[in-house]
Design goal:
heterodimer; A: alpha/beta; D-Maltodextrin-Binding Protein, domain 2; 2 domains; six-stranded mixed sheet; 11 strands; B: mainly alpha; MetI-like fold; 15 helices; 2 strands; disordered N terminus
Chain lengths: 348, 288
């Protein structure tokens, strides 16, 4: 009898174990994003000190790598993912996201409403916008004879062999499409054929195609005009304040990176705590100044430095939301863009 | 290869067991991944880097597109130029190294080997800084009054070639050095004694005797040249090479099956080159 009792006792203790652990989450948070996309010293470390939650940061190198991991292991490793708009949409449609508990996110109200209710999360159920970027033209007026105010100027004969363009089919062919008054996401073969012809006509003016080093070429004087991503425009301007930034009149490419909690995240409560922390105005300001992107957080404004607020790279978007267009995932039609780009690069 | 002979003499089942770990490594790290790529290359793409298990030969049919042939041609040409330049610079270097006295030889060998201890990316960034419009090379040329506008060297085909040769030249120098070093010099002396001028003796005796070293060096430079696409990207060459094409299919078009088909083609080309090399009497490349 005594033996039976002790066995029963042991069994009941075993049964209670999972209950105990679910009542209070382990003080751990696993973030999955690009390397360095959440700064340790200025953002993660203060969070760990405030909350006692230990943050593990697993880096991925591409959005697609992230999606594959989530699809494969049922996402039981990660509590918080930060990725780009088009892949957020795919992850949401595939049911890989946990709905946000807004009760635990009082700071969600800090977001500028022009950055929420986007196509990848129309009802704001899953995603917290983190950073926003817009590729811009930046040029050195000492080396360029003309005034540049839009994409069309890039075809000017005086710019021969002096432009650096983003080495990405969607972004750069998208730029050509915008210059033609077309959508960056068109899959119309006739329009794409025209865009291809127009892109090929730009060959003479292009000195280099690169993904993430154009600011260095601009600073060193190897090129005099660059079409590149937000942080690189900011870095170029930082090194040479004489450079001019252009918000192209024909239209803008636009992107938002957002955070979400995977459907079976092991520590969803900690993830909510961290998201609410990221949404704090002061933290959002620190993050924006560190990552050199535009912040979707309205409450951050009062904490941003004057240098950031007066920088043309970061404040132009507020007048241009109507002209901004996302690069969306076109599925198998992505190849149409890639094939044009391959043929274009064969001219080099 | 005295070890091989010893194994043969011992014969027996015991020695054959020594092959097992090597075979396992080969199966695990070469055969299985290759089969995986081969299988994927016959499948249909899904959305977002996924693959659907529907058999198709479409990926290989797409390879017939003349643009992809041009990409391969581009890579071949760059590899050919790289090999030629590496040979023109590497052979004399290897030759002098083999003919130098012991102290010099050790020093030269050190100069060839030491850069390997630093990551190639870091060294190429060094070249970028040297060559950029406001870099040291342009500064010196301008100070000497040779140019008044900075040269835009970065991004040119020449800058890509320079970086390629720089990365791969040790693979030319070492086999050439080893061939010259092991050559029987009495043959050259005999030629000279019989009245051959130095150049004539070099062309008719030294060159044919060191040909195995030269062809080994050429294969060792040519084959990696086909795959070193990041060098062009880093130097701003904006070239479309096979490596870039495969990367773009995987990461940008998100078309894994087509990327796999391209990889299989590149592998076939590489195997063909090795096959030709071995058929023409080339020795085992593991040894130099």
């Amino acid at each position: 009898m005594k033996k039976l009792l002790s066995v029963l006792l042991a069994l009941s203790m075993l049964a209670a174990l999972p209950l105990l652990s679910s009542a209070e989450e382990e003080k751990v948070l696993n973030i999955f994003s690009w390397d360095g996309y959440v700064d340790y010293a200025s953002v993660i470390q203060p969070f760990e000190e405030q909350t006692g939650i230990k943050v593990n940061y697993a880096p991925f190198s591409t959005n697609d790598e992230m999606l594959k991991k989530l699809q494969e292991n049922g996402a039981s490793e990660y509590d918080l993912v930060i990725a780009s708009d088009y892949i957020l949409n795919t992850a949401r449609l595939e049911g890989l996201m946990l709905p946000l508990d807004k009760e635990k996110l009082p700071n969600f109200a800090n977001l500028d409403e022009r950055f929420i209710s986007q196509y990848f999360d129309p009802d704001n159920e899953y995603v917290v916008p983190y950073m926003s970027g817009i590729p811009l033209i930046v040029y050195n007026p000492d080396m360029v004879q003309i005034e540049i105010d839009g994409f069309e100027d890039l075809w000017d004969p005086s710019l021969v062999d002096s432009i650096g363009l983003i080495d990405d089919a969607r972004v750069s062919i998208g730029m050509v499409l915008l210059s033609m008054g077309q959508s960056m996401n068109t899959t119309d073969d006739a329009v794409l054929a025209q865009a291809k012809e127009k892109l090929f006509a730009l060959r003479e003016n292009i000195h280099v195609l690169e993904y993430e080093n154009l600011h260095n070429s601009l600073i060193s004087g190897d090129i005099s005009v660059a079409y590149t991503f937000t942080p690189y425009v900011a870095l170029a301007l930082d090194a040479n304040p004489n450079l001019k930034v252009v918000w192209p009149k024909e239209g803008l490419g636009f992107g938002i990176d957002g955070a979400f909690i995977p459907a079976n995240a092991p520590h969803p409560d900690n993830a909510h705590t961290f998201l609410n922390y990221l949404l704090d105005g002061q933290v959002a300001a620190v993050t924006a100044e560190w990552q050199l992107y535009c912040t979707p957080n309205a409450a951050a404004q009062e904490f941003l430095s004057d240098a950031y607020k007066n920088n043309p790279v970061f404040n132009g978007i507020y007048d241009r939301f109507g002209d901004a267009e996302y690069v969306m995932n076109l599925g198998a039609d992505e190849s149409k863009f890639q094939d044009i780009w391959t043929e274009f690069k064969l001219l080099f | 290869m005295s070890g091989g002979k010893g194994a043969k003499m011992a014969g027996g089942r015991g020695t054959r067991l020594f092959i097992v770990p090597m075979a396992m490594v080969a199966v695990l790290f070469v055969a299985i991944p290759l089969c995986y790529v081969l299988v994927i290359s016959f499948m249909t793409r899904g959305d977002n880097s996924t693959v659907q298990a529907i058999f198709t030969a479409e990926n290989y049919r797409r390879l017939l597109d003349p643009n992809y042939a041009r990409v391969f041609l581009n890579s071949m040409l760059l590899a050919l130029w790289t090999t030629l330049l590496a040979l023109l610079l590497g052979y004399p270097f290897g030759y002098c190294m083999a003919r130098a006295n012991r102290r010099w030889r050790a020093l030269l060998m050190l100069l060839v080997i030491v850069p390997f201890w630093t990551n190639a990316l870091v060294r190429l960034y060094g070249w970028k800084i040297l060559l950029q419009a406001n870099g040291p090379v342009n500064t010196v040329l301008r100070a000497l009054g040779l140019i008044d506008q900075p040269l835009r060297m970065l991004g040119s085909y020449g800058s890509v070639l320079l970086a390629m040769v720089y990365c791969l030249i040790p693979f030319m120098i070492l086999p050439c050095h080893s061939a010259v070093d092991k050559m029987d010099w009495s043959c050259v002396e005999a030629a000279r004694d019989l009245g051959a001028k130095p150049w004539y003796a070099f062309l008719t005796v030294t060159l044919p005797l060191t040909l195995p070293g030269i062809s080994a060096g050429c294969v060792l430079v040519f084959v990696p040249s086909l795959g070193l696409f990041f060098v062009s990207d880093l130097m701003g060459g904006s070239l479309m090479l096979v490596g870039n094409l495969i990367r773009d299919q995987l990461l940008k078009s998100r078309d894994w099956p087509f990327g796999a088909a391209l990889s299989m083609l590149l592998m076939a080309v590489t195997v063909l080159i090795f096959g030709l090399y071995r058929r023409s009497g080339g020795k085992d490349l593991g040894v130099f």
